């Protein structure tokens, strides 16, 4: 499905989204680093939407370092990182595509030893309750804009709300999280997948 596949594309090369903000940037960036360091595992529901109004929902499981699973709907579509590789699997057509995890913006969020210096900048937000950070690794060709809600009961005082990315064709993809749970049991099997079978075989 082109729309679901656009999520995977949005996590590879993306364009810049906003300009850096000066006010409180150091303190907020420190909070983001504290949040990432404190979150060893996470589970959530997600809704993905594109600029044409199309949407898809699914479940997210994350385990640092380097592992994440996005499962769309009934599980026919997956995006899985196993620590080294980010793989998009489409069981409906029997295909998959893979990229090195460290070449995607998710590499910052999933790092085992997060160091945001030179890799992330706080950007302006119209809502004081929201901290927005543009993350970019020097090895990448783009960036991703992460949105955090200020929440004293969450790790580092922040809760990951979602992100917006723009792919190489300037198409915007937005992901929003709900039902976020931190440091819960996430099995290693979540980051494995069955090889897709080509249609007709």
From TrEMBL:
CDD domains xref list: LolA (cd16325)
Signal peptide, first to last residue: 1-23
Keywords, comma-separated and alphabetical: Signal
One Pfam family from the record: LolA
Protein name per its UniProtKB record: Outer membrane lipoprotein carrier protein LolA
